[in-house]
Amino acid sequence: MGENAVKKTLLYRLFKIGRIPSRLRAALESEGFVVVDEGIPGAVLTRDFKAPGKRFRRRRAGFTGFLALTRKRMVGYAYGRRLLHVPFDSPRLRDLDVKLIGPDRLEIAFEASDFQDRMSGRVRLRFTTPRAGEFLEALAASRGIAGVEPHA
Questions:
Q1: Alpha carbon of 5 to those of 12, 28, 56: distances in Å?
Q2: What is the CATH number of domain 3-143?
Q3: pTM for the structure as a whole
Q4: Average pLDDT estimate for 69-88
């Protein structure tokens, strides 16, 4: 059993929840994967979040999903629902605050209004993966995101 197998969630191991959908996988493979990890645990943390029909002062929700970097974009899903899709040529990429908050935990934080006009509040996506450092390095090297910090 390899190092990555230990970090996979039970839902992924049993039901393949958190896997890249086949149609999306084909598109991402054609762009060329830089770093990818499937079936990983994570959490969405929101603060003072407002959206049509939703209001949360503070909320934390766990998930099983994947995170992928290609040569063109960054994509993150939870339970088959898109959390993050940012092309590298998008000006919004620089608004992401990306950092390691542990040796195997990557945090991507942003203002919801930067991505959806009808939303507001702070959103933090935390992905637990042994490849967290690789994701951070690949993001920093490929696009020079402001706010990328190494693990303290």
A1: 10, 22, 34
A2: 2.30.29.30
A3: 0.88
A4: 95
